[in-house]
Structure formats: structure tokens, C-alpha cells
Design a protein that fits this description.
The complex is a heterotrimer. Chain A contains 23 helices and 9 strands. Chain A is α/β, with parallel strands linked by helices. In chain A, helix 3 (43-54) packs across helix 6 and helix 15 (262-269) packs parallel to helix 19 (316-322). Chain A is globular and about 70 Å long. Among the domains of chain B are: 5-92, Uridine Diphospho-n-acetylenolpyruvylglucosamine Reductase, domain 2 (2-Layer Sandwich); 99-218, Uridine Diphospho-n-acetylenolpyruvylglucosamine Reductase, domain 3 (2-Layer Sandwich), CATH 3.30.465.10; 222-332, Alpha-Beta Plaits (2-Layer Sandwich), CATH 3.30.70.2190. Chain B has helices at 5-16, 52-64, 117-124, 143-149, 156-159, 195-199, 233-245, 258-265, 289-305, 317-328, 330-333, 353-367, 393-412, 437-450, 474-484; strands at residues 21-22, 45-47, 69-72, 89-92, 99-103, 108-111, 129-130, 166-172, 178-182, 208-215, 217-218, 222-230, 252-257, 279-287, 310-313, 340-343, 370-376, 384-388. In chain B, strand 5 (99-103) and strand 6 form a beta hairpin. The radius of gyration of chain B is 22 Å and the shape is globular. The chains are: A alpha/beta, B alpha+beta, C alpha+beta.
Amino acid sequence: MACSPDPRLDLAAYARSLDCVHCGLCLPACPTWQELRLEAESPRGRVYLMRALAEGRVADPAAVRPHLDRCLDCRACETACPSGVRYGELIEATRAALERTAPRRGAAAWLVRTLLWQLVARQRRLRVAFRLLRAAEAMGLRWLGHRLGLLPAALAAAPPLPSQRAQRPLPRGLHRPPAGVRTRGVRVALFTGCVMEPLFGRVHRATLQVLLANGFEVVVPAAQRCCGALLVHAGHADRARELARANVAAFAEADVVVDNAAGCGCALGEYGHLLGDARAEAFARKRRDVTVLLATEGLSAAPAPCRARAAYDDPCHLGHGQGVRTAPRQLLAQVPGLELVPHARPEDCCGSAGLYHLLQPDLAGAIGRRKAASLVAAGVDLVLTGNPGCMLQIDSHLRAAGCERPVRHPIELLVPAT
Amino acid sequence: MLRPVSNLERELVRLLGAQRVLADPDSLLAWECDGFTVHRSRPRAVVQPESTAEVQAVLRLLHAGRVPFVPRGAGTCLSGGPTAGERAVVIDLLRMRQVLAIAADDLYAVVQPGVVNLDLTAAVRHLGLHYAPDPSSQSVCTIGGNLAENSGGPHCLKYGTTADHVLGALVVLPDGRLARLGDPAGPRPPGVPDLPGLFCGSEGTFGIATEITVRLCRDPESVRTLLAAFASMRDACRTVSDIVGRGLVPAALEVLDQSTIRAVEASVYRAGYPAGAAAVLLVELDGPESSTAEELEEVRACAAGHAALRIELASDPAERARLWKGRKGAFGAMGRLATDLYVLDGVVPRTRLEEALARIAAIGERHGVVLNNVFHAGDGNLHPNISFDGRDADQTARAMAAGNEILQVCVDLGGSITGEHGVGSEKLDHIGMMFSPTDLEVMARVRAAFDPDGLCNPGKALPQRAACAEVAKWPQMVARVLGEGEGPA
Amino acid sequence: MTAALEPASADELAALLRNRPGRVRLAGSGSRRDRLPPADGAVEVRLHRLAGIQRLDAGDQTCSVEPGLPRERLDAALAEKDLELPCPGGGTLGGLFAHDPLGAGGPGNVAPRSLLLGLEGVLADGTRFRSGARVVKSVAGFDVHKLLVGSDGRLFAATLLHLRLRPRPPAAAWFRRAGLEVAAACRLFQALRAQPVPPAPLQLRRTADGCAVTGRFAGRAAYVGERLRALELPEHTPDPVDHLAAPAGGEVLAGIVLPSRLPDLLPALAGTFVLRGDGRFELAVASPAAADAALPQLAAHGAHARIAAAAPARRGRGTPLDPGAEHLLARLRRALDPDGVLA
């Protein structure tokens, strides 16, 4: 009955799955378990299924794949795990192995490949695509398509794009602090990623502005590319490695690499594991989230006042993925007039999770509604979170709940008054 | 006698809808075991009813087809209780997660079985109330599972185990019939013996409780948590004896030994326990402000009298949470030591702790196994944890042999083979250490009053008679797991 | 009832039962005899000679006692070790667990099921068995011993009880607030029940003179004094009532009720009434007719009750039992005493 063990499954990942002693403390941390209450939709259940896959005990891998697909890869389970199971590595390796041995077919697979291979990984095409999408949205085509049933469910469920005029990309090259700002003599290289630029160009501009105002020299390498996180999550590790190598090379000169998207930052931090070479490891060591850099070095330029009751929501790949929880809060506490209000379960995933909200619209919707409800209950008038996908998802679910609130990246609040 | 699988499946889907019936054999692997991973067996199907009526409908169907079934909560049981036999259907109760009633004036709540222990406390916190029994897995384990196992936890020293907090239960008997045991006003209407007390701890073999009435407790005025580190386990044990001997009743008295401390400190549950100590004692005192202040000084004196290396007092709730975090994550943290963990649950009289631990250590050495102790010292409830690699037959055999001897020591000292984890499938071979065949026969008669057809979680809690082919015996189980579970070469 | 048999040991009791003496009514000292339904033609088997303290482990705070041991003798032995059995009730220990006043745990009252750690017993056919353990915590085997609690001796006989003890509190003080209206008494009673450490025992009593709330605060001396002052409770000599006596020609009903139902229920019921902190009550009424009238009133307020003290033929009547529980109870009786020996 059992098929033979698949030799291509990552043995290192298998060994890590043995760390799981089946205690179950991860279950309540998992958004899909909270929603579905099924063992197979929990981290413990998925680790068990992955272990069974590696042991060759699964007769038909296609049968367990939906359970693995429903994982958000939010890493909340890693925060909860007393045994130190590195779940993220495990699910990514398993997805990669499954994709190699049994590549996915059908509409969802087409969507993933198109989005990831054709667009996300190619900056210029991505910008064009977003321009087209915005135009379509402005003409009400989404509404029409939805009414006529022309859009696949996944796209119909996608959150609306922020209404923002297409922005020019951040100028590449070196930027120096403006006159009158005392330079720290520290040069940082800014990672710009793929979707942040066309979606939230303002976040990049704010990041640049804050860094310069605080006396950092900023270089934006021209040869950098997408981080590859979405490819890794979807099991396309080989393609991700190409991008990773390009980035390691692009940032070879830099002493410090700064990023401002939690998902990218987490992926960059795992380049050592992805590429398995010393250069990649050195790269991973020198990168940090912009809030970590600023919190460690200290703000020298006071942020502009902002009178608001705000909630800070931890992006999964910052909190669970990088263990960064205090830095953004510590910086936001320095914004004059800003009151940080606690809300229930700030570390829970919002359901965005890369392409997840497109591929698992029902589940992502349920998880997003839960997040919106907790923010609404806290009675805030501003939401802060440091990842473009989360910003979109939270914004869309707050609107759906009839409680539209501005959703901002923390760095946007650190811009000094001019 | 058996219906064909497809028919049963179709009927279950008719009752619950396709979403809540799982029968794909590969997905069912996830339900193969609970927290005791040595025994594994894939169920025939998993169903998720959402109401009492649905549980009744499912049990009527299964009863008519004489299909065995196993109730299951969050699967954190440590004795194989919810592990299903191959022919059995798992009744997964996790979707029954509503708090049905909260009566703050009469101090009780009615909950569905799938409500998570800590979620119940969260639901009544704003009233200044809590649900007292607190198993280490309380963030995930369910009230239904707690009821089935009569779960304990650190604070059971003062407040009692689950049985002390269950007032009543609406039970679907294995034939689908309903019985209301106890009442919110009390577990025992006049003229009826303590049926909820009997049901509690029946390990899912008496039926399925679909509404559980539990007592709520008023939050204490003050809580003081103290950590004392010792250079020897003996000093820690003697401190415990002194505290109990002085007539103090702490809310909790917990001990962790050196290797447990190390494992915890290496994990995300790190609590700042002193790494060099041979034993750490956690004492929690609760009650009126003035009383805990006095008691604290007495406890401090006890610890100092036994040469405590360090005494640390949690100064605020965050500190207290930190000290407890390590204790609650201790079991999972053992995963850092080896791939598999055999958690024992023996009990000895509190006066025999020191002797028991010395004998346990000797057994561990003789069998050459990695052994840690983390235990509810105030109750004499030991948790020797044996770490081993389940893929290695020799290691597994040695772990099991050492476990066997340790339980015999507990019984010899006048104690029990299990204080709170249950017999399940794990301790079927050990229950004979405590009970004669006649004792077990009397228990079997009681069980038969609830489940004459033997369909409800068969093969658990009591050894079945030798004639029955379904007996899940240890050595065979271990062999099967080893045969099936070998990793890639 | 024919003459009583008085075995002096568990062996004698087992042998006696194996000899098939016909129907048997188990009794301790016999103090509750007039509160049980009649057992016509049954032999009374009195266990009062099984009265030893087999083991008292002060360090472990547990003991093993025979069922015929009088409560006062155990209390005296425990007092020497600064220990107590933290529950009310008198008579023999076996009777205490098998019969009435116990059952419900409640705020400030330890559930008797948690004091009874295990037992050795004899089935109606003379089969000896054990259940539970001697230590304070054990979940090995099904808890057959818990069936003793409230069984009225109709499921099996206990021959040795393993009990959990508690240290005696360093200080204790009784209080009594009398002359209260029903509503005020109920409020005070609920407020006391909701104390973080409620008084135990705690009683609300209604007599012809009005309502009184009485109880005992225990703990550290400072705390006890502070509570009495804060709640303005006058100290008083201990006067808990285990049972009400039936007035001439009248009857006593016993049962359980949610305290929150009392303000509505109590004015509708005539007669002396006692409610304990655990929700267990007794009501003494002037006549059988008044008892019959009270039962539907009680049922309407969610209470369960039955006639305890009355003419033999009327004992045991009460509010309806849940049919499922009744069905189970009948099956348990058949399982443990298939020939219906224990009356």
C-alpha cells in the first residue's frame, strides 16, 4: 500500500520533522486550525503528514497536498513550538519536493506560474501589469467581470488596489543626507523588492526619507531583483535560487542591507539556507528590517506629530519569521501624539500570505475577517503593519466590515516634519 | 456484520455533509496518534459533528452497524486515549466549541466539549472568574478531553482535578440515547449516586459528553510565585516536605530537574531558570493579600533551610507568566533531546518523593536511558520523561523496560501508575500492577452498563479479555510502528 | 426488618454476603435509617464494628478508615496531627459518603468525591474489589468508588475508605447574621459564596423568625478577622444544622437548588428551610399535602428534591429524574447487583 520513500524529499527537512513530539501546543497558534479545527489543517498534523510523505507511507501524495496548500506559511507555529521545529523550512522543502515530483496542473497552477515567473520576478512587466489592472479597476471592469462571472474566483476575491498614481521607481544609485543633517558615516543598501514599488511606492520614498533624515547614506543597487519568497513558498525553489544569487551579487559591496517588507526580509534572511554557501550566509547576516536598524541606532530626527489611536499588527514574517516585535513598537512610541492601542491577537496572520489570498480565497477571507474584527473591536483610527500584502488585505477587510481606516507602514510615521 | 466502507461513508455524509466527513486514507494519517506517539493506528474515518443531535445521529448509525468509534478532542492526551483502532470512526469534537451559558451568580458555565480549556477562562475573565484545572496543554486541550481523562495540572494541588469542577454533563450514550448526569445546582440530584464523578476519567469509553457543566472559581485576591533553585534534588524534595508539613496549601508546587531546565532554557519557552541548578522548585501561593504575604515568608524560610542557591520572587504578572512558561512548555521542549519522548505519570505518597526519585534515577542508569524529571511535587505526581529514538528498536525497548520498572516502583511505594494522563492504550500492561483481575472485572461491569456492545473507544482504559482479537498489546504495537515507520535509508 | 447482622471484618462481611442471606439493607450506625425508603423483609447488615483507622499518613495527608468508624473518632485522631476532613456531616464515615448530606462540591466546600480517593469494597455477591488509590491523585481504572457517594448503600458495601485530608486552618471563626428578609439573606448568601475564599460551611436558614446566614471563615488569623470586619458579620458560636427534623405529622424534603432561584422560590414555600453553600437544601413542611404541593414548585424553579423523612411509604418520592440517568442507574444496579440483593 505504501509507496517507496521519495529519495528527492529533503532529508534534512525530514530530520527536522522528528523534533516534533506531537505535543500540540502549536494548534491554537495556527490560523487555519482556528478556522477549520481539523488536525490535518494544523502545524502538528501537517508535520505528521510531511513526515509520512518522507517515510513513503502516503499512498497518494495528491491527497494530502490540499492540507499542505492550505498552510499560510505564517510561522506562528514556530513561535509556539517548545521543541524548536523549523516548520517554515520543512513546508517549503516539502512543497518544493512535491512540485518537482508531481508538478501542479490546472488554473491555480497557471495563475501561480504566470504571476510568479512572468510578473513578480520581472520588475518592468510587473509595473505594466499593475498599470493595466489599475486602469481596468478605474473603468469598473472588475465589477463588470464579477457580475458576468468572467473572473476566476481567486481574482474576484483579490483586494482592491490602493488608488495611487503609478509611481516612478525609486532612483537607483547613491543618496546622501540633505544639507544640514549630520551624517553618521554609515552607508546602507536598500532592498526594494517587487510589489512594494508599484503598490506602495510611498513606503519606499518614506523609507529613503527617514534614513536620510537620520543621517544614513543610502544606496539603491540597480541590479537587485525580487527576493523570491513567493517562489519558495510555492515550491519553486530553483527559480528562487536564481533570484537569490542575483541579489547576493547585487549587494556584494554593501555592509548593511535594509529592507522594509517583512516577507522579503524573512526570505533574504534565509538565503543561507536556500543557497547553502558562505556568500549567501554573509548576505543573510548583514540584512535587517529598517525598523531594527533604526531602533538599534536610535532616531536622530524626531518624527512628525500624528494624533491618532493606532494599532500595530505584527506581520507574520517579521514577528514569527524574524522575531522582530519590539523594534517597530519602540519606534512608534516616539511619534508625538500617537497612542498605540492593544488589539486581540496582533501576531495572528491576516490571511494575505503572499499569493494565498488568491489561491485560498475562502479561508483567507475568513482569516481576514477575524483580523478586521479584532482591529474594529479595539476602536482604532489607524492601522500600522510592515508588509505590502498585509496592508492590502487588512485594508480590504476593514472596508468590507464597513470600517475603512488608513493602513500604513510604520516607517511612514517616522518621517520628520518638514 | 460490517457494512461496506462506502455505505457507511455515504450515510455519514448524508448526516453531516461532505465537508465534515473525512475518509481519504492518506489524510487520515494525521489522526493516527495523540501525544503518545508509540501507538499509532489510522482510523476508518473522521467525522466532525456540531451539535448533540448530530452526535446522536452518528452514534445511532454506528451502533446499528456495530462500528466502533472513538471520541477525540485536541489530541493532546498522553496515553493513546483518542487513538482509534483500524475499524473505528473518530468522532472529532473540535467543532463543538461554543460556551453555551455563563452563570456568574451561581458560579458555573455550560460548554460544548470542543471548547479549549484556556478559552473558557478567557470567556469569564471579565467577571473575575476562571476555570481552575490547568493542564500544561491548557492552551490547546479541550474541556471534553479534560472530562474524559480527569485531567490535572499544577494548580490541582489546591483546587483539585477536573472531577472536582464538573457538576454535570449531557451524555450521548453509545447507542445514541441521551442521559443528563448531574445538574448545575450540584452533581447529584437526591437519590442518584455521583454519576458525573464516575463519568469523569472514563477515558472516552462511557459515551460522549456534548454539554458539560463546570464550576467557575473566583480569582484570588493575590498570587505570589516564587522560584527556588537547589544544588541537589534532595534539597528540593525536602523543601517540599517541609512546606506541606507546615500545613501550607500552596496553589502549586512544581519541580524541574537539571536536564529539564536545560531543555526548557534552550527553547522558545525559556524562563530564565538558573542553568547550574540541580533542581528548580516553583511555588505559587494564592489567596488573601495578607495571608500570601505571611505564607511567602514561611516558604522562603523552608527553602533557605535547605540551602537554596537562589530564591526569586515574581514581582508582577509578566514575571509570573515567564516563570510558568518554562514549566508549561517543558514537555514539548524535550523534543530537543531526542526524536521521541515517553512521558510517565506515576504517583507516590508525598513523603516518599526523595526515595522514589533516587530509585528512578538508578533504573534510568541501569537501562542507559536519557531520563528527566518534571513533576507536581505537591501531589507526589512524577513525570519521568524518557527521551529515545523511536526508529531504534533497542533504544525503544530500553525506554519501555525502564518505564515499566519505574511504574512498579510507584506502586510498590503505595502510589499509582497514573496521576492524570490516563491508562489509555499505553498502560494496559501496567494496570495489573494496581488491580487484580477481579477489580478489573468489576470495572468492566460498570463500563458495560454504559456501553453493553463495547463500541465506545474499545481497547482503552481496561485490558480486554485475552479472547478478544483486538487487544492492542505493547510489544506488537512497538514492532508495528518500527516496521512501518522506518525513515528513508 | 429482621434482626441485624454485625460483621466484625471485611472477610466476615464478604462471607456473609456469599452465603446469600436474602435481601440486605446496609447500615452504619443506623442513624439515617428513618430517611431511607423501607426495605421490607431485608436483613439489616450493620457495619459499625468495622471501625478501625487502618492508616493515618500525616505527611501525605491521607488515611484509610473502615466504614463503621464514627466521624468524631476520626476527627479526634486527625486533630492530634493538625489535620481535618474538610467536609461536614456526622454518623459513620461510610454512612457519610453513602448517604445524604454530601454530594455537591461548591464554593468553599470540597467535593466529597475528591476526598474519597479510593476504596475496598464487597459486591452483593461477596466479591471483594478495589477502586481508586491511596494517594491524592490517581486516574488508573474507572472510579467505581465514586458510585459510593450518594448510593444509599444500594450498589455495594465499602470495607475500607481511602481519604484525603487537609491541614487544619490556623484560625477559624463562626459568624451569624440573623433577622434578615429573604431578599437580603439571599444577597448576603450569594455575596459570601462569591468570596475568593468562601466560608465553609455556609448556611442560609429560614425559620418562623426570619432568615439567618451562618458560616465559618477559616485561614490565617489576620484574614479571618479582616473578613468578619469587612463584611460586618458578628461572631457566633458554631451552630450548623446537618438535618432538619420532621415536625409532628410533617415531612422533610431534601434536594439541590441554584442559589439564584431562591429569592423567587423561597417565598412560595412554607416551612423551615436550610440551604448550604454547595446548593443542597432541606425543607421541613407541616404535612404530606404540603410536601406534595412543594415538589412541583421546586421543579418549576429547576430544583431537584425528594421526600427524605416521612412515613416509610412516602420516602423517596420526588421531582422527576432524567430518564436517561434513571436508565443508567438501573443498568448500573443490574451490573453490580444483578440479583437485587441490596435494598
